[in-house]
Amino acid sequence: MLNVEPFRELEAEVTEWRRHLHQHPELDYRVHNTAKFVAEKLASFGINHIETGIAETGIVALIQGEGGDGPTIGLRADMDALPIVEASNKPWSSQVPGKMHACGHDGHTAMLLGAAKHLAKTRNFKGAVALIFQPAEEDGRGGQKMVQEGIMERFGISQVFGMHNSPGIEIGKFGIADGPILAALDEFDIVVKGRGGHAAQPHRTIDPVVIGAQIIMGLQTLVSRYTDPTESLVISVTKLSAAQAYNIIPEQVELSGTVRTLLPSVRDFAEQHILLSAKGIAQGFGADVELKYRRLEPMTINHTEGTDLAVKAARKLVGANSVDDKVKPRMGSEDFAYMLQARPGAMIWLGNGSTAGLHNPAYDFSDEALRYGIGYWVSLVETALPA
């Protein structure tokens, strides 16, 4: 059985990398300095097959094992930050106003770099490891773009694995499940078209604000009264745009929001019935609606073989009792889903302790978790590709 002790030697150095990345966050595909930092570190480890500029700023690097010929597995880390003003009050807080690593991608990148350094030194595996450093996870579907640009075929990747930190799971523990682990992500915009007028004479108008309010409440009945309670559906209206004056009833109101689902049938239902519900309510008041519905990210679905391999690797590192292999799916989304559509594999949760939640201004990646993330990657490689 492996343990995390060998990776403590890397911890101080990787912590320094992680905090540097945290201080210098970059958004979406514009992770130029982050990508440069990553590429320079990889080269310093003696890795000589490094390809940059994939999906604009993504990187894939190959490490060949010394255990003979074998398949290539992909390990993926995301690099981008979020447009959030940091409130963690850490000495290494963001130095870029309005941007912060509020989802732990600084930790993900640093852990994969730490694993790369170890693997490049030991090479105690057969075949090869493809290190995938991805831009634009948060809002640009960089994972989809890397797949579309052919990384699976170009680098001969047969399986692909991801890891994401999880506040609320104890440091040193892991969580995973076979099948859906994260939800599909959709977005919608509803335009309610009424008849505007003076706010003092609402009877002369068809008030889209009141109608919009009815639609917001009506959409919640799709969740509470029209879908099976055991089949997850989230419909959240998050944006509302109306008149800009106190005394005007506007011609139209715009409502926008997000839909999260774990089943294709529920996803189809939501798209169809959001329009039917909104249109029915609006027409009852003499108004009309337009709907724009966008399917963005698919469900993140772990494959059975990849899940079993991930569980085995994690348990080799921390023991059976520290790996929960039946965690409940979450309603967040991940563009790693596109990689799992292209190749079998799995995503695992890494415990981040009792920190603030992801996308919270007070969040910070726990440096104590670094050794476990590095150890997991190494254990996974040596388990999947035994020399």
Notable traits:
35% helix; 2 domains; 16 strands; single chain; Aminopeptidase; elongated; Alpha-Beta Plaits; 4-stranded antiparallel β-sheet; 387 residues; 8-stranded mixed β-sheet; alpha/beta
User: Percent range for helical residues?
Assistant: 25-40%
What CATH architecture of the largest domain would you give? 3-Layer(aba) Sandwich
Give the averaged pLDDT, no decimals.
Answer: 97
CATH topology of the largest domain: Aminopeptidase
CATH class category label of the largest domain? Alpha Beta
The radius of gyration is 24 Å
Our measurement of the CA-to-CA distance between the termini, rounded to an integer number of angstroms, reads 16 Å
Name the helix and strand elements from N-terminus to C-terminus, one letter apiece: HHEEEHEHHEEEEEHEEEHEEHEHEH
Domains (count): 2
The fraction of residues assigned to DSSP E strands is: 25-35%
Q: What is the molecular shape? A: elongated
- How would a textbook summarize the main sheet? 8 strands, mixed
Strand order of the largest sheet: 1-2-4-3-5-16-6-15
**Count of discrete alpha- or pi-helical segments spanning 4 or more residues:** 10
The low-confidence parts are: none
β-strand number: 16
CATH superfamily of the largest domain: Zn peptidases
Structural class: alpha/beta
